[in-house]
Design brief:
The complex is a heterodimer of chains A (about 500) and B (about 375). Chain A has about 500 residues and is of the alpha+beta class. Helices cover about 35% and strands about 20% of the residues of chain A. Chain A is built from 15 helices and 18 strands. Chain A has helices at about 5-10, 20-25, 50-65, 115-120, 140-145, 155, 230-245, 265-270, 290-310, 320-330, 340-345, 360-375, 410-425, 445-450, 455-465; strands at about 15, 45, 65-70, 85-90, 95-100, 105-110, 125-130, 165-170, 175-180, 205-215, 215, 220-230, 250-255, 280-290, 315, 350, 380-385, 395-405. Classes of the chains: A alpha+beta (about 500), B alpha/beta (about 375).
Chain lengths: ~500, ~375
Amino acid sequence: MNYIEELLSALGPDKVLASDFDRFSYSSDFSPMGPGEEVVPDVVVLPKDTQDVLEVVKVARRHGVPITPVGGMTGMAGGALAIRGGILLATHAMGQVLEIDVPNQTVRVQAGCTLQKVNDALEPHGLWLPHLPESKWSCAVGSAIACDNDSTFGAKHGKILHPLLSLKVVDGNGRAIEFGHRKTRFTSSGYKLKDLFAGAEGTLGIVTEVTLKAEPMPPYRRVEMIVMPTLTRAVDLLTHCHRSGICLEAAHINCRHRLRFYTHAYVVKHGHEPEIPDWAGALLAFAVAGEREVVDPQVEWVIRQAEASFGGQQVRERDIVDSWWTSKHTLEFEPFHQKWPATQGEKMFGAADVGIPMGMLERFYDEGFMRLMAEYRLSVLGMNAYVESPNSIGFSLSCAVFVDYHDQDEVDRYRAFNLAMARKALEMGGTCTTYMSDTYLKIPVMREEAGEALEYYRKVKDIFDPLNIMNPGKKWEHATRKEGGEPHG
Amino acid sequence: MADADGGPAAKAAAKKRKVGDKLLKDEVVTCYAASCGMCRRNCPIYNITGRMVHSSTGKNRVIRGYMEGKVRPSKELVDAVFTCTLCGNCDVMCAVPNTEHFIALRQELVEKGFLVEALDEVAKNVERTGSIYAQPMAEPRPGKVTVYAGCRWGYRANMLKKILQVLEIAGFEPRILEEVCCGYPLRVFGFRERYDRNKRLVLERLGGEEEVLTLCPTCTVELVEECGLPARHALSAVAERIPKLEVKHPLKAVLTYHDPCHNARYNGVVEEPRALLRHIGATIVEMPSHGAHTTCCGGGGGLSSTRSDLSKEVARARVKEAMGTGAEMLVTDCPTCFSNLREAAQEMGSPIKVALVWELLLKALR
């Protein structure tokens, strides 16, 4: 039997999709791709639980076939593409909420459960999972871990590692292992191996179940926006807020161009883009959540400080703020007027996700984003700096440019621009990726960033996936060691 | 069809897609590029099967592959493309008319000779008898306001009588003409030529009317958007007369309202049935999915003929959602939704009573 026949025998026909159309339906994610660049897997499997995943890995090991695990396939850098062919393991059918432990505020889910579904299940208990990117309606918990993606509420609740208590993984050895510290917030016991899976892109194993810390749902939230003269002044204001004891739930610094990405609801209502003052160099959007009598004074303090000491000006036109929040979080768009295709009416977009030290924001914007964009003949959509560290300033940047997917040359220029930006970030003491992970696109820069640590990456990979069947070609090029089946890679 | 000024028929014409057209190609590439997945949140089929091809994203990708010769027509592809209720959840979540894409692919595949037998039978029924059920359509009657009963109510004389009584209480004098199917099934099952022939009959019979009150949300969309007729759902007309409707037997019940996809998403009939139910004394508790973001009953798009198992599973999920509200009644106005949900509730042994808004209105107002 070939490996697809073995998969069919092990899982049954409902969980193994080999038709051309089924495979084609998994051939892209949110990353810019030129004509004919779709990546079609050889077969798709839809496991329902850990046992099914074990069966898939058993077959893959026997035949040395790659497995690319995917969730919602909304990643923006090709992490979900089966670039080496083989098996694409779609986790959507592993979408159950397994346990909600209200007294301990934890939730156990299958890895294919979307972040929104987790929250839908928690809501009746007065709890929520604050790890919520804009893609929450389709982004799976397993994908959030695999990419280590951003959250709208990172300023208070951090990234996925913050709520991640424990996870079950089927590794490349074909074993299902639980890593983590059960339902406790932290531990000093053993090595923190669960942390290895955040941003690992499924290269070490396939996450099948996850325990997450939920939080009490805040009864009230206030969202505001302040126009700032420069990006640096916006960072200064955030520093001032932290020093003063203000607890921001969300803090996003947009360059003056980027607001346009979030104004769809405003444009639908008013028929034009909102006006931004000529002097504006940045827009700080922020949220504070909790009891109203605690929240409102904090918000008003921030606005007063911004206007009195930092050259800022509150955005008083509520439709602009609400439009941003609609795009960012509520997604309560007017039916038939959603933001994505409208934004991309003529051209689609791509984004680079570098990280830079907090004091470098203005310089990076000028030298790393705007200058390189011009050099690579791309047009600006804008930069957003998300604060993604709880009660401390740490930026995850989204530097977005328009990319015409019909134009292969432009797609290629976009990829070169992305690498150049990543190198610029390294020069400034930063990192090449903050929320999409390395995928196959940033491997050259990733190697530069890792330096001598690469040797230890290799050892870690060998422990978890000695046959290099777990999403090979992502994060880095790892040599295949032949053991059992045919070599691959 | 005086609709050159951008009325519903003009908008419908602008939505039309055909495999091979540049517009369709551009739109599926946009979807391919965005891959935002927002359409998948409430997709009733994808959320059961987990197969990407059953989602709007997946079907759009497949359409692209088909147009580029990378996906071949096949019986299996037909099965996948017809495994969809065309409920329009993906339309509401997106700026491109996804369901028109799927209909275009269905038409393309049918024209390539890939017939779905069960749906072909439905089309033959319409051609032979004017009804999808090969049953008599509603019996014509004189009156002043034209009411279009459609296939679903046409052969259910008792229920139709009750609906007409409500209209009479509201002060209308309902008239019924010789009817044929509105044609929606023919169009969405991919039978373009058969649809065009049927449309001519529809226009012959209803084309001269000043106003047509409809009793089925799907017929309403079809008559308005495809035929350009001055039709609207009868509940809208009755709701306008609420101040004149004397409640003789108040309905003391807590109920939840299932918005039929076509009424809520395309006809904009959301508040009217609720206003009527509140008027007769009901307390309404909403399900999480309601209004334009309603969830399908499972009966649309031909799914009950092609995949009755999935159709029933979708209906059961909706009944479960209704039960979660604590309501004693699950009320709707669409004949298809009513049948599907009632059957599902019975199969589940659910204590929730599935009711038609018209019956409740009649009991309260008569």
